[in-house]
Design goal:
Blueprint (H helix, E strand, L loop, with lengths): L2 H8 L19 E7 L10 H17 L2 E8 L3 E8 L4 H19 L12 E4 L3 H12 L1 H4 L14 H5 L10 H4 L6 H17 L7 H20 L4 H9 L8 H16 L4 H8 L3 H9 L1
Antiparallel strand pairs: 1-3, 1-4, 2-3
Helix pairs in contact: 2-3, 4-9, 9-12, 10-11
Amino acid sequence: MSNDILNKLREKKLKGYLTIRQRIIYPNAIYHITQRAPGKDVLFLENSDYLRFLFFLNNVSKKYRIDIFAFALMPNHIHLLLKIKGNNLSEAMMVLFGNYAKYFNIKYERKGHVFCSRFRASLCNDDSYLIAASLYIHLNPIRAGISKNIYDYRWTSILLYIDHEKKSFIDYKTILSMLSPNIKEAKKIYLDLLIDGGNIDLSKYSGNDFAAMSIEHFKNIINKLNGNLSDLDIMINKFKNKQRIIKPEDKKARRYLIEQLLSRGYSIKEISIIVNISRQTINALLKI
């Protein structure tokens, strides 16, 4: 992250950091991109549609110098995990989704929108978040009930992470190398993380809340695995089980925690769940 952006965050000049309406894009940033079809429409009807989208994705990654770390192409939505080299995320995604929409409408002799709205972008601002986001993406077919195990669904990058090495435009080694310098060992660790993630019960959450809590769960596991809890994770653990905050320094620290989570793209609703305090309390703290 550039020093200019960090300074603006510290000075509280950037709010709603990386929300749908206001995005901050800068070179070498990593994003979790999501896009979906309108209502109950679908994006892919045949295997050739999935292959065509991957063809467009490969072309865009080369043209705009974008590293693709992971993907999941679901019947009605798409997940991409990528790194941009320049300030060109919006242009690249416009070309990618625009090309596919044109292909889809021509092939099936239809008119209208193929995608429901502007894509969503979430910043991955540390290694544990990046690994966690990739795990969440790869578990999507199981969560959606269209696959019974991680090997069954064809249209994700999962096999690159847990199977034998293959030539691909997907850069899967960057994330694996964060788990171990030995790629074979890293794949075993990654598979264990996937199995653990498939067993967690987050049934009370849905939509963006489910995504946030899944990624938070993975981050905790990864940090414990590395023996490297960040200052932010330590603060979350400190405050999420506290019923009453009385000391002025604790109140100040909790407000700082909320501001930091906001700066990382979490919504008030997501922060309420993560820190285990009401949205009213969060809003009150931010107004002080």
